[in-house]
Structures are given as structure tokens and as C-alpha cells.
Amino acid sequence: MKKINAVITGVGGYVPKYILNNDEMSRIVDTTDEWIMTRIGVRERHILKPDEGVGTSYLMIKAVKELIDKTQIDPQSIEAIIAATTTPDYHFPSTASLIIGALDLKHTFGFDMEAACSGFLYAMEVGAGLIATGRHKRIVVCGGDMLSSMTNYKDRTTCPIFGDGAGCVLMEATEEDYGVMDTYFLTDGKGYDTLHMAAGGSACMPTHETVDKDMHYLYQEGRQVFKHAVTDMSDAVEVIAKRNNLTKDDIAWLVPHQANIRIETAVARRLDLPEEKVMINIDHFANTSGGTLPLCLWEYEPKLKRGDNLIFTAFGAGYTWGAAYVKWAYDGDKFSK
Fold first, then answer.
1. Please, what sign has the CA dihedral across residues 26, 227, 151, 157?
2. Which CATH number covers residue 73?
């Protein structure tokens, strides 16, 4: 029996309608467009407002609906939904279960994964593993976050960075030499002090005091996180490239987590890749955490060709990081014709 690979056969995405640009941001907090663009590279970010929808599940449901409409698959043929998010609607039930219920899927199981900004990459690995067993043929992997729900808009160093959005991919079984070819992941468990949300979990339950002290917002020490992200993402993509004998000429696209434009360019330099081979959307989507990688695929899909070699990489709280080598299986422009 031939080896079963998990191949991506479609992409969906969604970002909220409301756009918070840098001019408006400068009226909320003491910052400027020049400061944000120079240090982060974000021009605008999409924010989910209550009058449009509430919660990460709303974003993911929209993305999965688009995926189903575009690929014309039978929704009842989806065997699993994996939702990678740090901002679930609730502690329970899972975001994946809300997606399944909203889409009225009858033959599907689902669960959430939480690995911060590395979540989608890790979830893609899990989806590929489920397919490789031979017991599953069609899985949808979602990544997305409503980071506005944990952003402190009084903190000028963090609030310009984040936005809301979600994307998803359809993964299917194949015996062809396409799909998820190799992965390299690590977690060191040492990043709590520099990147966390202090309250809201079982170790620090919500109280009047935790709310008054702004402990339910994302906290980040940007300089330390930047240093680790550049080093760890660069090391991971180099490991994947060397292990698979991929040169800069072999790599069609680098798909990096959209944390900071300076991080993306630093990782690309490590592989000696030109700018035109790097997927970038941080300027108009900002950092959507688990949503950045699938939203890159969503936007760049028309440019992707069958046989393209893609290297994904991400870094998140925990610290979690890694890279994946994916051989693309279809000409993306077929969905735009």
C-alpha cells in the first residue's frame, strides 16, 4: 500500500467589515502612522463589531462556508473540524462544535487546539496525521482569532499590532507526492513572563481585582519576543530546507506568521529569499494570531501553482514555534475563473 499524504485542496477566509486604520488608532492612543509602520508594518486591521457578529466562531463559520461554496464539496462529507484559536467563544463548548452546529454537519467530530500564533501550523500537522492513518479522508482545519477581545487599547505598544480574522483549509487524502511533506516543531515552555494573558484561567480566576488591574488583556514584552521569534523561526525554516534539500531556487513561497514586518524579512533573509517569494498581509490584516497563515493562503491562492514548494513558519506564546514543508497540489487560479 502506498503512503497516504494529506493534501490541501481548497482555502477559505473571512475578515470583519470594520477597518481600524492608523489614523483612527492615533485618536484612541498616543501613536502615529509613522511609528506603527516603521516598527510593526501595520497600516490597518479588521475588527469584529457586535453589530456584525460575536466571537471567533462567527469568523470561522464564515470562512468554512466560503470554502464549501468555492470547492463545491458536500458539507456532509467533512469528517472533522479542527479549530486553532486562542480566543474561543467560551471555555466550553469548543469553537469547533459551534462551527459544526451552525453548519448542521451530521457526520463530523471536532475539537479546538491552542498553541497561540503557532496554532494553525500545529493543527495542520494534527489534521495531516489523522488523514495519514487511513481512517479519515476529508478534514477542515481552521485558524483564527478575535484578538480585539483581549487587546488593551490603552497600551500603545501592543494595541496597533492585532486584528481579527480567520481562515481555513480543506485537507484530503492522496497517494500522490503532494501535501504536507515534512514538519519541525518545538515548545520550550519558558515564555510566560514575556507573552501571556495573566487572568481568566484556572490559575487566576476572574475577580474585580483582576479586571481593575487590566489582567485580562494580552501582555507582551516586544523586544524579547521579537528576538526569540526571529531566531526560532529562522532556525526552523533552515532545518526544514536543509532536511529536504531545498535551495532558495526550489522554494516558491515562504509563508511566515504575520507578527511584525521586520520578523518576516529577517526570516526571509536567512533563506536568501527575495521579497516577491514571501507572503505578506500584515499591512492590511495585522496580526490575527492563528489566522495569519490561512489568511495568507486565502489571499495568495490565485498565484499558487501545482508543484510549488511552500515553507510555513510561526512563533507564538509558550514559546511555541516550528516550520512545515508543503507541496502545493493545484493551480489556485482555477477558483477565480
1. negative
2. 3.40.47.10
Q: Are strands 138-146 and 164-174 parallel, antiparallel or unpaired?
A: antiparallel
| Enclosing H/E stretch for 327 | strand 320-327
The number of domains in the chain is: 2
Residue 112: closest CA among 77, 147, 60: 60
Query: Is 117 noted as a catalytic residue in this protein?
Result: yes
Give the gyration radius of the chain's Cα atoms: 19
Q: Which of 22, 117, 136, 168 is catalytic?
A: 117
Q: Is the pTM of this model over 0.90?
A: yes
Q: Which of 5, 257, 260, 296 is catalytic?
A: 257
Kind and range of the H or E element at 18? strand 18-21
Cα distance between residue 74 and residue 258, in whole Å: 32
Q: Do 197 and 174 share a structural domain?
A: no
Tell me if 72 is assigned to some domain.
Answer: yes
Query: Which run of H or of E encompasses 329?
Result: none
Q: What does the DSSP assignment read for 196-218?
A: E--SSSTTS---HHHHHTTTTS-
User: What's the rounded Cα separation, in Å, for the pair 202 and 289?
Assistant: 23
Q: What's the domain range around 111?
A: 5-178
- 244 is known as an active-site residue: no
Mean pLDDT by 10 residues, the chain (337 residues): 92 98 98 97 97 96 98 98 98 98 98 98 98 98 98 97 98 97 97 96 97 97 95 97 97 98 94 95 98 98 98 98 98 85
Q: Facing residues of 180 across strands?
A: 326
Same domain, 25 and 140: yes
In degrees rounded to 5, what are phi and psi of residue 121?
A: -60, -45
Cα separation, 231 vs 10, in Å, equals 31
C-alpha–C-alpha distance, residues 47 and 253, integer Å: 28
Is residue 168 domain-shared with residue 193, that is, in the same domain?
no
Q: Clarify whether 287 is annotated catalytic.
A: yes
